[in-house]
Amino acid sequence: MEENPKLYYDTNEVAAMVGCEPSALRFWEKKFPQLSPKRDSRNRRRYNDRDIEVIKKIMHQKEKQGRTIKGAREQLRRKEESQLLIQRLVRVRKFLVEIKDQL
């Protein structure tokens, strides 16, 4: 485990971490709304751990699943929607259990 984990990484660090070109990261930022690195005062991109996970998912969709950019974007969107639906259902279930316990 790292002693001093970083909160933000620059484009070159992330590209080296995931094994792609920095230009691919900049391109994907335009194509995937899920990928939105922050900008610092000098307008440089700063990626956090969530952004890096999105990049890994994009790479997996493209390289392992053989999807196009459009297909990968659609798959990520559907996955996000299903996760939101699961969260809502968990909240509804919790609410119903509370009502049942009160009866």
CATH architecture of the largest domain: Orthogonal Bundle
Tally the beta strands: 2
* First-last Cα distance: 48 Å
Biggest sheet strand line-up: 1-2
Reported by name, the CATH topology of the largest domain is Multidrug-efflux Transporter Regulator, Chain: A, Domain 2
Mean pLDDT: 90
Question: How is the main sheet built?
Answer: 2 strands, antiparallel
- Residue runs with pLDDT of under 50 for 5 or more positions: none
Q: What top-tier CATH class of the largest domain fits best?
A: Mainly Alpha
Number of structurally distinct domains = 2
Please, could you describe this protein's structure?
The chain has helices at residues 11-18, 22-31, 49-64, 69-102; strands at residues 38-39, 45-46. It is mostly helical and 103 residues long. It folds into 2 domains: 1-66, Multidrug-efflux Transporter Regulator, Chain: A, Domain 2, CATH 1.10.1660; 75-102. α1 crosses α2 (22-31). The longest helix has 34 residues, at 69-102. The mean pLDDT is 90. This is DNA-binding transcriptional MerR regulator. It holds the Pfam family MerR_1.
